[in-house]
Amino acid sequence: MAKTSLIQLKGTVLKAVQQAGFDVSEDDLHLERTKTLEHGHFATNIALLLAGKLGKRPQEVAQVVASWLEKEDLVTKAEVAGPGFVNLWIEQNFYSTILKEMVGDLSDYLKEDIGHRKSDIGNRVMVIDYSHPNIAKPMGVHHLLSTIIGDSIKKIYQHRGWKVIADNFIGDMGTQFGKLIHAIKQWGDLSEIEKDPIPALQKLYIQYHIEADKDVELDEEARAEYKKFEEGDKESRQLWEKIVKWSLMEIQPVYDRLGITFDHMNGESFYEDKMQMILEQGRKSGVIVDGEKGAWIIKPDDPEDVPAVVRKSDGATLYITRDLARIKYWETEWHPTLMVNVVDAAQKFHFRKLFEAARKLNLTTAAQVHVDFGRMRFKDGSMSTRKGNIVRLNEVLDEAEKRSLALINEKGAELSDAEKKALSRIMGVGAVKYSILHQNRVSDMTFDWDQMLSLEGNSAPYLMYTVARAKSIVRKADISLSDTGDYELQLSDDLETKVILDLLQYSEALERAAEEYKPNHIANCLYQLAQDFNTLYNALPVIQAEEPIRKSRLLITGAVIRIMEDAFGLLGLSVPEKM
Question: What is the DSSP letter of 133?
Answer without folding.
Answer: P
